Amino acid sequence: MNNPHPPITLTSRGRLVIGLVLTFFALLAWIVLGGGTADASTDQPRPVSQLVVVQPGESLWSIATDIAPNQDPRAVIMRIREINDLGTQHVHPGQSLAVPAY
Predict the structure, then answer these.
(1) Domains contained in the chain, CATH given
(2) Secondary structure of residue 59 in the 3-state scheme
(3) Among 15, 67, 71, 97, fewest CB within 10 Å belongs to which?
């Protein structure tokens, strides 16, 4: 039985084009997924200066605005979470938190 379609043969130019296309998509995926690089900010992490005990009705937002009124509360909250390894947990009254110096 004869095969009506001959097998596909890639020329060197075809191999080059496929290689470039695959490389492009690999680089694009690397860029989109972050490339495994850390944030290269020039600010050094501030040292921990004190412990704060969470009072009833307090939140990370209120603590952040109390300890660093001139800073972006979101950045302060991220730093408090990093220092205390909180992840997405909420804080509870009586909980001690290490906070950065500002």
Answers:
(1) 48-100 (3.10.350.10)
(2) coil
(3) 15
